[in-house]
Amino acid sequence: MNQDSFVLRGARVIDPANKFDAVADLVVKNGKIQKVSKSRFEVPSSQVTDVQGKWIIPGQIDTHAHVAGISREVDPSLGYGMLARAGTTTVVDMGGTGKNMIDGIKRNGAGLNVAGQFALIPGLTIPSDNPSRGEIASTVSDALRQGCIGLKMLGGYHPFSPETTAQIVIEANAQGAYIAFHIGSKDSGSHLEGLREVPGIVENGRLHVCHVNSYCRGVVKDPVDECQEAIEIMKTLKGQINTEVYHAIANGTNGACDKSGNVIANVPRNCLAARGYETTIDGMRQAIKDGYASVIAVKSGDISYISGKEALEIYNKSNTMVGMSFPVNLPASAFHLSTVKDENGDFVVDAVSTDGGSHPRNVAIQSTMALVKFGALTPSEMVNKLSWTPSRMLGLLNKGHFSEGADADITVIEPNSGKPIMSFVDGSPIMIDGKVVGKGGKMLVTAAAEKTMSDSGVNFEIIDLSLSKLYKGF
Ligand SMILES: [Zn+2]
Question: 142-173: b or e for each residue (b if 16 or more CB lie within 10 Å)?
Answer without folding.
Answer: bbbbbbbbbbbbbbbbbbbebebbbbbbbbbb
